[in-house]
Amino acid sequence: MARYVGALDQGTTSNRFIIFDHSGRIISIDQKEHEQIFPLPGWVEHNPIEIWQNAQDVIRGALAKAQLSGTDLAAIGITNQRETTMLWDKNTGKPFYNAIVWQCTRTDKICTELTRDGGQDRFRNKTGLPVATYFSGPKIKWILDNIPEARAAADKGEALFGTMETWMIWNLTGGPDGGSHVTDVTNASRTLLMDLNTLEWDDTILQIMGIPRQILPAIVPSVDTRTWGTTLKDGPLNAQIPVCGALGDQQAALVGQTCFDPGEAKNTYGTGCFLLLNTGVTPTVSTHGLLTTLGYQINNQRPVYCLEGSIAIAGALVQWLRDNLGLIASASEIETLANTVQDNGGAYFVPAFSGLFAPYWRSDARGVIVGLTRYVNKGHIARAVLEAVAYQTFDIMDAMNKDSGVDLSALKVDGGMVANELLMQFQADVLNVPVIRPQIAETTALGAAYAAGLAVGFWSGLEALKQNWAVDKTWKPTMAAPTRENLLEQWQKAVDRTFNWVD
Fold this sequence. Notes:
By secondary structure, this protein is of the alpha/beta class. The chain has 16 helices and 22 strands.
């Protein structure tokens, strides 16, 4: 019997392959970054060929580090940057264009046109989503409208659309030679094209956007005992291993954090920041700027839904400080720099580089640093960068409390930034609730592993997964209420300054 499960984590900045044992512990990990392509202001792209090559490299790398072979894995799960969109030739596997990344704002005019009849909430009753540049549907339309070869192939039935897990699964299971063309319900729910209640592509929306249904993948459960095929003997695993679990990265973290009961919430601090609240088997429509989305579906059971708040720029702001300004040499140095000062010195940083996501949904917003005086130094800027992540999380949590009618009692956290003690303490202070970090911080990849492992019986059920979860550290709020209120008031003034920058 295979002793491990593998998870391919296709993230915004890198690919990782992580091998987990039955207790959810990491046995091996390999990681490789890919290029971030910025053709124009607000445009963000990835090279899908590079990403697929890197995926193969990290699979081989993780196996080699642990001196394992592909046959030691019971199954493969996939998790991915969700709304990132690509179209490729089903006969050759060649992309028609680079992948358009979820952060990209090039579809702003398309979205404006879509909102002329019915407003930003035109499709919300069906999809749970506002019309926004964030989602895949407008990105598909942009490719079809601007790349003639893609439109011609789509009309002939020779083009395939996929978010990145679809691209990974298709390539892993054969590519042009019979690769499986599927997307799981969580990723499908981020396209602006799927009906939340039927879990089917909506023909009316497809017609409005001019998207042929034949290019779309089959929608499947996140945990699927049918499997979608096996890896190839001459592929990166050198073995035929079932590919049978997939979750968008934030839903994968929800599963990895074992938030299986209504009312449980987690926040992932990665390139962006994403807070999900389990609302049970009935969709909850948001009236405060949040998204209604799929949490997960196990085989043909009733799906579990979530409210989600999405922040475009979190860890990416630290990268910006490193790469664009050179104030730090590595991301981990920001905490040391921020700790050289006691507070933000009156400076607030709102990173609306691609507009503002939840709960504002303002594509006209752009980033600002406000409150600058001669007193402010690079330590204050570093602190303002970290505080911006916590403030944005507060905005989402406040909206979530209003939508759900239930005040959060604690927040489970994960992602790369949870190693930052200063940020985690400030987050607890701003939210005024305990912040809890689990022992296994790689919850996104773990969730994908859980999905695949459940499908093949490696884990018996959700209770077995809950037994793997354990607390690593808890931060409790220590800030006085008047201080908190003053900081939040200043933050809101800063947010207001970002609006109406782009005409």
